[in-house]
Design a protein that fits this description.
The complex is a heterodimer of chains A (about 290) and B (about 280).
Chain A (H helix, E strand, L loop, with lengths): L2 H5 L2 E3 L6 E14 L7 E10 L3 E5 L6 H8 L7 E6 L2 E2 L5 H7 E4 L12 H11 L4 H14 L15 H13 L5 E5 L7 H17 L3 E6 L2 H4 L4 E6 L2 E6 L1 H6 L1 H6 L6 H11 L10 H12 L1
Parallel strand pairs in A: 4-9, 4-10, 7-8, 8-9
Antiparallel strand pairs in A: 1-2, 2-3, 2-5, 5-6, 10-11
Helix pairs in contact in A: 4-5, 4-6, 5-6, 6-7
Chain B lengths: L21 H17 L3 H17 L4 H9 L2 H14 L12 E5 L2 E4 H27 L2 H11 L10 H31 L9 H32 L18 H22 L6
Antiparallel strand pairs in B: 1-2
Helix pairs in contact in B: 1-5, 1-6, 1-9, 2-5, 2-9, 3-5, 4-5, 6-7, 7-8
Classes of the chains: A alpha/beta (about 290), B mainly alpha (about 280).
Chain lengths: ~290, ~280
């Protein structure tokens, strides 16, 4: 690692030549859950640029959730450091960092503190001691951002899974975070709920400029990201664009991950002698096929 | 069976009662319980019942919901009633006929016993209905705020009022979730051949263990997750915390307070000048 990147969060981005800010940075992080645990994370170096939408893939126990929890001090590294916008996470700035890094967890039923939508969305904003009017504004903003305005006074337990998770996202948004981490937030939802969440998150990334780290084991979701990262045994083993990752299907299998169906179809077509290029959505693939056929 | 438990569930409609200050509702409940225990005759208890029926009516809680709250304690009530009918004794006469209606060894059914049992049943019903009315009409958050505000004096002796109130409201919020979970686990065990509804009492209690352990495990797991989610949203206890919803005492609250005061006064008066003493 260059010294310059440690001292200055702003670093030169080779791809487009613009100045980019490191939103989240893991510097040589070593972590374990104690002696008995088999899990180890050693010398992990990884960073996310501001405004990026990164997918983190990996099977169970690969260290995805650990990565998320290290980001806002729910876990502290044994060695090394985590930095958010250049500021190293310490006990002192813990709450400042938590305001900037929001995490949405997996289970929609065990994240809500209150039983009414607006009360729950207000929880975080109340914790940091905002004034009433400001909290009201933040609730408006957060519920609008996730498209749940008309459910403001609804009872959470009566909502669908996708709606509950959108409320969880709103609860995090009320703190106006710059980074949002979704720790398998779609894992317990039905396909429709998953789509809802992915749309909301994509929108937040594009319209609000929130940096997103999306942890998932649904390959399809990774297709929407600008970069995908594969973890295995506490290590980052692959890092590329989603297309680049899925081109290496064989390698993915060794990490107990499967290709998204469309990638699999591409591979099979190629194996069958049809020279299609990798394509990650149905329309492009259709074009590729029609090109080959004609 | 588990769906019958309605305690602690908020019933979302807009009503006069829903809009009352939670502090007043809590005080009302306490005052009301005092009143029904001070009442010594049917007339006084009847007045209490009337007030409650009125309250349920304007709270727009459907009759069935109220009955579900009662159903939960039906066994307890019946048990108490039966015991009292057989053992109360007493020689008072309320209607034409002998004071002692039936007697065998230590069992003795008397007119006084029947009247007393009826009184007890009514009292227990009122107690449960009134408590469930509080949770039907008050969201856990405002209930928490109310409790916290009422217990504020304890903060002077460094009692963790906010934390206690939050624990209570989270407990209320998780009741329906844990109910669903229990049902799920029970179904899973039944699908694998567990006999939860048959056999003698000892066997049934034993059969509960494989339900209880996964339930506890999942409850701990949930608690862990909730803790993380709260931490992630900057929770650090009651210090420096603000509240989105402010409690305000309004004319409605005054009206309800006057009603309660009148009820208690009436009951106390009737206690000393009984009209139809039991």
């Amino acid at each position: 690692m260059k010294i310059g990147t440690v001292l200055h969060p702003r670093c030169y981005n080779r791809d487009n030549g613009s100045m980019m800010t490191k939103a989240l940075e893991y510097r040589d992080v070593t972590f374990s859950y104690g002696e008995e645990s088999a899990f180890r994370m050693e010398h992990l170096n990884f960073s996310v640029e501001e405004g990026e939408f990164v997918a983190v893939l990996g099977h169970n126990g690969s260290g995805k959730s650990t990565l998320a929890r290290l980001a806002n001090g729910l876990l502290t590294p044994d060695r090394g450091a985590v930095a958010v916008f250049g500021a190293t996470l310490t006990q002192k700035n813990l709450f400042e960092i938590r305001k900037q890094v929001g995490i949405v967890f997996q289970n929609p039923d065990s994240q809500a503190v209150a039983s009414i939508v607006e009360d729950d969305v207000a929880f975080g904003a109340e914790n940091v001691g905002l004034k009433r009017e400001e909290i009201g504004k933040r609730i408006d903003f957060a519920l609008r951002a996730v498209g749940m305005e008309e459910f403001r006074t609804a009872t959470i337990s009566r909502l669908s899974g996708g709606q509950k998770q959108r409320v969880s996202i709103a609860g995090v948004l009320a703190l106006k975070p710059k980074i949002m981490i979704l720790d398998e937030s779609t894992a317990m939802l039905d396909p429709r709920g998953r789509r809802e969440i992915v749309e909301v998150v994509k929108n937040l990334n594009e319209k609000e400029g929130i940096t997103v780290l999306m942890i998932t084991h649904f390959m399809e979701e990774a297709l929407l990201c600008s970069r995908a990262v594969v973890m295995n045994r506490g290590e980052i083993v692959m890092q590329d664009t989603p297309e680049g990752i899925f081109r290496r299907g064989e390698e993915l299998l060794t990490y107990n991950l499967a290709l998204p169906r469309i990638g699999e179809i591409c591979n099979r077509l190629r194996a069958g002698g049809m020279q299609v290029r990798d394509s990650l959505d149905v329309n492009t693939l259709a074009e590729e096929i029609s090109k080959c056929v004609s | 069976m588990l769906k019958d438990v309605s305690f602690g569930q908020y019933y979302p409609v807009k009503s006069f009662v829903h809009n009352l200050d939670p502090r007043l509702k809590i005080l009302f409940l306490i005052g009301y319980i005092v009143a029904i225990f001070l009442a010594k005759e049917f007339l006084a208890l009847g007045a209490c019942a009337l007030v409650l029926v009125f309250a349920v009516f304007i709270a727009r809680i459907p009759f069935g919901k109220v009955m579900r709250a009662v159903k939960g304690i039906l066994f307890l009530v019946l048990f108490t009633a039966v015991i009292n009918v057989f053992f109360h004794g007493g020689s008072a006469v309320y209607w034409d006929g002998p004071a002692v209606l039936w007697e065998w060894k230590i069992f003795r059914v008397t007119q006084a016993g029947i009247m007393f049992s009826a009184f007890l049943v009514l009292r227990l019903f009122l107690l449960v209905i009134c408590s469930s009315l509080l949770t039907y009409t008050t969201t856990p958050v405002s209930l928490t705020d109310g409790i916290e505000s009422l217990l504020t004096p304890l903060k002077w002796v460094r009692f963790p009022v906010h934390e206690l109130a939050l624990i209570m409201s989270i407990a209320l919020r998780f009741i329906p979730i844990l109910m669903d979970e229990t049902e799920r686990i029970m179904n899973a065990q039944k699908a694998r051949g567990a006999m939860l509804d048959s056999g003698g009492p000892a066997k049934r209690v034993k059969a509960i263990v494989p339900v209880l352990i996964p339930l506890l495990l999942s409850a701990f797991h949930r608690a862990d997750e909730l803790g993380d989610a709260m931490d992630a949203r900057c929770y650090s206890g009651g210090k420096n915390r603000t509240k989105y919803k402010k409690l305000r005492f309004s004319w409605r609250d005054l009206l309800a307070a006057v009603l309660l005061a009148a009820l208690i006064a009436g009951v106390v008066v009737m206690r000393y000048f009984p009209v139809f003493p039991l």
